[in-house]
């Protein structure tokens, strides 16, 4: 199972409504794919104050790496990703992505 984790540093000029909209659309698009298991996003609460200014996160759970590749290569994802970059500090530099391979705990 792959956890696709996206962390964003939105620019100060990015309207909150635009931030919410692009994250909602990314979540909804991912969930429209049959091999996406879950998708969630929200503001970073930074309780440990170690997140270096990343204000929001999106976490998508895919059955396998091929499912993530299907999502990543889709034209809808590319268009939404471009919008997300436009809203972040330094464009793509304002986005941090981690793809974690984790066991499928649901299979137990």
List the helices and strands and how they pair.
Layout: E1 2-8, H1 16-32, E2 36-43, E3 56-62, H2 65-73, H3 75-87, E4 95-101
Antiparallel strand pairs: 1-3, 1-4, 2-3
Helix pairs in contact: 1-3
How is this structure best described in words?
The protein is of the alpha+beta class and 108 residues long. 26% of the residues are buried. It has a 4-stranded antiparallel beta sheet with strand order 2-3-1-4. The chain has one domain: Alpha-Beta Plaits, CATH 3.30.70. The radius of gyration is 14 Å and the shape is globular. The protein contains 3 helices and 4 strands.
Enter the CATH topology name: Alpha-Beta Plaits
| Uncertain residue segments | none
Instruction: Give the CATH level 1 class.
Output: Alpha Beta
Give the amount of beta strand, in percent. 25-35%
Which value, in Å, is the CA radius of gyration? 14 Å
Helix-strand topology string: EHEEHHE
Tell me roughly what share of residues is in helical segments. 25-40%
Kindly report the spatial arrangement of strands forming the biggest sheet: 2-3-1-4
CATH architecture: 2-Layer Sandwich
**What's the number of domains?**
1
First CA to last CA: what distance? 14 Å
Tally of DSSP β-strands: 4
Shape: globular
Mean pLDDT: 95
């Amino acid at each position: 199972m792959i956890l696709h984790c996206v962390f964003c540093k939105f620019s100060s000029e990015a309207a909150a409504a635009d931030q919410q909209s692009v994250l909602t659309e990314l979540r909804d698009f991912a969930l429209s794919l049959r091999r996406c298991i879950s998708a969630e996003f929200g503001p970073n609460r930074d309780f440990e104050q170690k997140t270096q200014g990343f204000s929001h996160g999106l976490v998508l759970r895919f059955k396998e790496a091929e499912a993530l590749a299907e999502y990543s290569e889709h034209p809808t994802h590319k268009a939404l990703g471009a919008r997300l970059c436009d809203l972040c500090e330094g464009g793509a530099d304002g986005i941090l992505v981690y793809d974690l391979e984790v066991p499928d705990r649901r299979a137990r």
